[in-house]
Amino acid sequence: MFGSAVVYIGLVVAAAGLATVIRPLRRLGVATRRRGLGIAATGVGLACIGLFLPSTESRVTRKTTRLDEYIPVWQFREFHTIEVAAPPRAVFEAIKKVRADEIVFFRALTWIRRGGQEGSEGILNAGSRRPLIDVATSSGFVRLAEDVPQELVIGTVVAAPRGYRGKLTPQVFQKPLPPGFAIAAMNFLVTPIGSNRSLVSTETRVFANSPAARRRFAVYWRLIYPGSALIRRMWLRAVQQRATG
Asked: How far is CA 232 from the centre of its chain?
């Protein structure tokens, strides 16, 4: 998250600098276009620093969830929670049934992610007929665990060595892989917190098993993190609305 923040602060500074190249702002101390170019260059440099910051590795000390079993070590992570006024079983059913059109901004953000191009149905081009979890697990993701009504875990390979043609199965996440892989898993965890109330969390972890894969994925992750985080939050709200509606 820190690296992504640095990237976007840099991009904002760069945009502000370019704006003052077009129209210098003497009141802000940017009296010349050359100074504006300097600000823009500083912003670009800051964004590059954010993109290429080293990624630190984390690991679980004690496995308490199914996600811990499949991704016990990671370099990239996001985590979000929401409280839902519904019992765990109703919440779990809502998680399995939420569609893409129920998630605010999902279609807009995934349209940006795929560059506005159409294609076959998948997690970045989900329709409104099938639950999003079903779309994911039929187009590049595999269901790793489904412990009703507590935890659902899905996973995918986000990077692989050139020429890799292996089949995606849960075993891919439980065995050593050749260098060059980055694997990702996401869970929904439902915890009862009182009478007919649940705490719902979603966590995404990515593990890259070589320095080169880690550097490549870091650039991608830091660019898409804000949109990804917004999708996860809106996804939880869609679960909340479906479970309580």
From this structure: 7
The C-alpha atoms of residue 165 and residue 163 are separated, in whole angstroms, by 6
Task: Answer yes or no: do 90 and 211 share one domain.
Answer: yes
Write the pLDDT tens digit of every residue in 113-161.
Answer: 888 888 778 898 898 899 999 999 999 999 999 999 999 999 999 999 9
Say yes or no: 15 and 92 in one domain. no
CATH number for 97? 3.30.530
Please list the residues that pair with 191 across neighbouring strands.
199
Residue 107 token pair: 């279609």
Domain count, the chain: 2
6 and 122 part of one domain = no
Residue 22: domain span? 2-51
Which residue, 122, 149, 132, 148, is CA-closest to 97?
132
Q: Are residues 127 and 38 in the same domain?
A: no
Query: pLDDT below 70 — which residues of the chain?
Result: 25-31
Question: CA 64, 69, 70, 75: dihedral to nearest 10 degrees?
Answer: 60
Q: What is the pTM of this model?
A: 0.91
In sequence order, the 6+-apart residues with CB closer than 8 A to the CB of 20 are: 28, 30, 33, 35, 36, 39
